[in-house]
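Lab notebook, bench 4. Still working through the backlog of constructs that have no structural model yet. Next entry is a single chain of 192 residues. Request: give me the structure tokens for it.
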Amino acid sequence: MEILTIQDTEITFRGVGRLQHAFPICSIHSNPKSPPLPTKKSSAQPNVTAPEIEIGEFMQCSHTAEASWKALKGKVVVFVFWATWSSASVEAIPYINDLASKMTDKPVQFIMVALEQESYRKVEIIKDFLDKTKVIPWVALDSDKIMYDQYVKMSGVSGIPLMVVVDQDRKVVSVSRPDKVTEKTINKLLEK
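Model written out:
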């Protein structure tokens, strides 16, 4: 058996797919460099109204899912911007699942918003990922990064995974790394 190792070489996600197609009996592993984790403390100002929800397509949700502020009125909404190619995003999923599972009987809606790079295969990539990985929250696609860019501009915080918490009055409460948002944080909002 021959082993070919390529290190420190940038290969696009499409390139990895082509390698897997060309060498179907080989195991091809990729670990693309992820953008940095959000490090700046949230600068979202209190009482800033969250922008409109602009989600393209749902990959996973309840059969009655509707992503609009009207439909989510009275709920705390937690958006998680992430990508399948981001190792930090994938590593955060168990924490997000745990947090979401603790909120299932409360007026809280988690929506993981995928920011995939490979334009022509975005839906397929996410569906393949969801077939292999347990994800509790709704999963949707922000094809053009419109929502992500609005929250980055509003808060000055960027990088993925990025968690945005919006209260029942549609006010942005937090823009940060997922591990900075706890069950206590969300429960405190529910007491309002």
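Notes after review: The chain is about 30% helix and 15% strand. The CA atoms of residues 4 and 25 lie 13 Å apart. Flag for follow-up if needed.
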